[in-house]
Hints:
alpha+beta, globular
Amino acid sequence: xxxxxxxxxxxxxxxxxxxxxxxxxxxxxxxxxxxxxxxxxxxxxxxxxxxxxxxxxxxxxxxxxxxxxxxxxxxxxxxxxxxxxxxxxxxxxxxxxxxxxxxxxxxxxxxxxxxxxxxxxxxxxxxxxxxxxxxxxxxxxxxxxxxxxxxxxxxxxxxxxxxxxxxxxxxxxxxxxxxxxxxxxxxxxxxxxxxxxxxxxxxxxxxxxxxxxxxxxxxxxxxxxxxxxxxxxxxxxxxxxxxxxxxxxxxxxxxxxxxxxxxxxxxxxxxxxxxxxxxxx
Length: 281
């Protein structure tokens, strides 16, 4: 694996060992930031246009100014330069972070932004986990449903707390519930349930992050005439499902082996992994 020695800050390559971001940074102080985790798979930057579109929507929600040069083409070029500089090929994780420029306390002095591109080598294409995930519900903090629910914010304390709960319960992931008690997502993924060959996933109105991989899975399902419904997911839905899988841009698909005393298969999960890898070839 290559070592991530460099990153790109506002379009300029800098060493990761240089202290480039001040302590007054608003992402550090207030979580006033957005980020995208982007997969570089088989020498191909996956679904970049969708990532940039989602990032721009999030910036609009947070009233950040959008620079004219902040577009898919320029970001593609910067990512390509960084991957080459770090020697990260043919597979890597890319993180693109946007944060409001320093100044002010809770109320910003400016809505101008800075951005950071980082990369980290990965050792394979999309692979399905051999052992199914063991998951359960994290219910200590409910996810609110509001206009911040669907964006990828740097303010992630709820997910951190769910991660600590997962750790203490020795689980592979935790499922988050919204203010109405419905399951909306996991710590870092969207959730899909398969029943009799039909796929069900939580709608964005339930408060889940608008996952880029979620969108790809729904597109692939549609292209292959697999019925897909956006509907409320409850523990009852999971207990009656044939298969449950989790999706995010880096891992692709992670199949769930067990929820409480229910066990699942992974046939549909493997189908989608194969389709994702065919998109990267």
